[in-house]
């Protein structure tokens, strides 16, 4: 029997069973209501019975033809068409297997994560780094913002240095932002590892040589490039200045490079962000110590980035139920940003722009199925409202810990430095079994991208737009109904592999070019586990090694092409 006939038979079966799918509450309606529903479904079945069977191969063909035509017109190439075609097949096969696209989701891990891995290798035609002597000059970078915003700036600085064939001077961190941390690059990141790891990509030096500085007639030229500038801008506007002045400084360097770049430059971004930017040994060791303490109490735990600090709430322009006191306090803080527009708190909440309260985060997690004995690590600064705001979350999840609770006096050396404290939270959140974001901030995006790259570890992003409506209506429904609606709202926001689309969002959050598909053969898997498309045909063995030492990661190699080629999403 052909695919079209099978699908037609399935549709006929579902149609014949349709009355059984009605909500139980509808059985209590009047006869007229029941007859109306029955007639409606009969009408649907009648239409199905007289229609001709659809050839799915023809439908797929027309879809691919249309997508191909669109991609030619928009400049996006076949990788996008391939992704959408795989996604269509993925959903079709998944639905045919379990009879529904509403199959339960494992709340602790994705069943498909084993099929993907981070890939950042250079292509065959990727030219070696230009030596310091032959480079076009020295590029100085002044980053901006908090630790994770600066991390994106450093990542893009390496790519810009590659574009300009420049020698990169180790970037200067921001000492004047809201966080007022005077840490330098070498206080946060392993500077020698950074230079050595990227030696094949660009040349990096710790400072401009004195000989070069003495030979200059003028101080280094300083400029600020527009946000999201394309590589062509750097070639046309920045390179001539670099060649003329020999030393050039780019200031306030945050998000100054376009999101969409060619594949080689995107993979360079991944090498920088996920490998070269390694924290210093004291920070790494302290972060791992906290992870071990969490693991001793529970085999698995959730890390929640609440981001419910006063500055975040003031910036959002939202209202959280604290009355006139809250409006005055947050209003005063909001005055720090003179360019912010007046916003409607209700409008922002309906648009999904407001972070959830700690209580709402707890309700979401319980509705998704996490039990109240689950251990939570809360990564956050000062919570607005203090213990009173946190108590509803503690009632739902009594086992809540923070770095202050886990470390005690050991944390004292880090307390004066907000960036080092943020780095410790970053490590614990990265190592958690489940990471829950509560805003679209830089840490949330970078960690979400890293966890995708490192194997699609479960990352939950609240669908605030739909959840806000549910929270307002929660008292009008029983708990089971509320929980089902939360689960439905969160589909597509749970960190599953198929949530990534080429060109979607910021690359730091959706590093699609750097996520590859594993060749597949694991005969030990039960037959009822769904396998992503194109994997079941491979006759290959992939050994997973979770104990890889990062110092030796350059020795890791992808399977040779004679064995099988990894396919990119």
UniProtKB/TrEMBL annotation:
CDD domains linked: O-FucT_plant (cd11299)
Gene behind the chain: LOC107486074
GO molecular function, one term: glycosyltransferase activity
Single GO BP term: fucose metabolic process
InterPro entries, alphabetized: FucosylTrfase_pln, GDP-Fuc_O-FucTrfase
TM helices/strands, residue ranges: 56-78
Protein name per its UniProtKB record: O-fucosyltransferase family protein
Pfam short name (any one): O-FucT
């Amino acid at each position: 029997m052909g695919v079209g006939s099978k699908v037609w038979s399935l549709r006929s079966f579902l149609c014949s069973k349709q009355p059984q799918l009605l909500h139980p509450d509808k059985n209590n309606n009047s006869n007229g209501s029941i007859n109306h529903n029955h007639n409606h479904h009969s009408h649907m079945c009648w239409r199905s019975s007289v229609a001709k069977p659809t050839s799915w191969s023809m439908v797929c063909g027309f879809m691919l033809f249309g997508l191909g035509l669109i991609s030619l017109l928009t400049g996006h190439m076949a990788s996008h068409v391939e992704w959408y075609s795989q996604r269509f097949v993925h959903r079709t096969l998944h639905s045919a297997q379990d009879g529904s696209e509403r199959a339960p989701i494992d709340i602790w891990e994705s069943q498909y994560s084993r099929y993907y891995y981070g890939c950042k290798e250079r292509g065959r035609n990727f030219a070696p780094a230009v030596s310091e002597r032959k480079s076009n000059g020295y590029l100085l970078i002044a980053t901006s913002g908090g630790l994770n915003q600066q991390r994106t700036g450093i990542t893009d600085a390496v790519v810009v240095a590659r574009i300009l064939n420049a020698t990169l001077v180790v970037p200067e961190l921001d000492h004047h932002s809201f966080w007022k941390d005077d840490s330098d690059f070498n206080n946060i990141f392993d500077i020698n590892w950074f230079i050595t790891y990227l030696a094949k990509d660009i040349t990096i030096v710790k400072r401009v040589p004195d000989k070069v500085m003495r030979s200059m007639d003028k101080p280094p030229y300083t400029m600020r490039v527009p946000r999201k500038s394309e590589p062509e801008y750097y070639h046309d506007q920045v390179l001539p200045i670099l060649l003329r002045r020999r030393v050039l400084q780019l200031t306030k360097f945050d998000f100054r490079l376009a999101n969409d770049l060619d594949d080689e430059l995107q993979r360079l971004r991944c090498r920088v962000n996920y490998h070269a930017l390694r924290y210093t040994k004291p920070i790494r060791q302290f972060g791992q110590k906290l992870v071990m303490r969490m693991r001793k109490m529970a085999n698995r735990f959730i890390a929640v980035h609440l981001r419910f600090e006063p500055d975040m709430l003031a910036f959002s322009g939202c209202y959280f139920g604290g009355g006139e006191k809250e409006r005055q306090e947050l209003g005063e803080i909001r005055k720090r940003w003179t360019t912010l527009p007046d916003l409607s708190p209700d409008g922002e909440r309906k648009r999904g722009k407001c972070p959830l309260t700690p209580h709402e985060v707890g309700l979401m997690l319980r509705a998704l199925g996490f039990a109240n004995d689950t251990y939570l690590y809360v990564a956050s600064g000062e919570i607005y409202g203090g213990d009173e705001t946190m108590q509803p979350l503690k009632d739902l999840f009594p086992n809540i810990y923070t770095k202050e609770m886990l470390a005690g006096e050991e944390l004292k050396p880090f307390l004066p430095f907000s960036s080092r404290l943020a780095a410790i939270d970053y490590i614990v959140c990265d190592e958690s079994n489940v990471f829950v974001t509560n805003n679209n901030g830089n840490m949330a995006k970078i960690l979400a991208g890293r966890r995708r790259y490192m194997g699609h570890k479960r990352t939950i992003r609240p669908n605030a737009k739909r959840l806000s409506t549910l929270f307002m209506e929660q008292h009008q429904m029983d708990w089971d109904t509320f929980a089902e609606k939360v689960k439905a709202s969160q589909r597509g926001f749970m960190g599953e592999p198929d949530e990534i689309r080429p060109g979607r969002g910021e690359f730091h959050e959706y590093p699609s070019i750097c996520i590859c598909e594993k060749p597949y053969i694991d005969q030990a898997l039960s037959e009822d586990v769904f396998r992503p498309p194109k994997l079941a045909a491979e006759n290959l063995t992939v050994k997973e090694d979770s104990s890889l030492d990062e110092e030796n990661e350059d020795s890791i190699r992808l399977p040779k092409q004679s064995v099988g080629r990894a396919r990119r999403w």
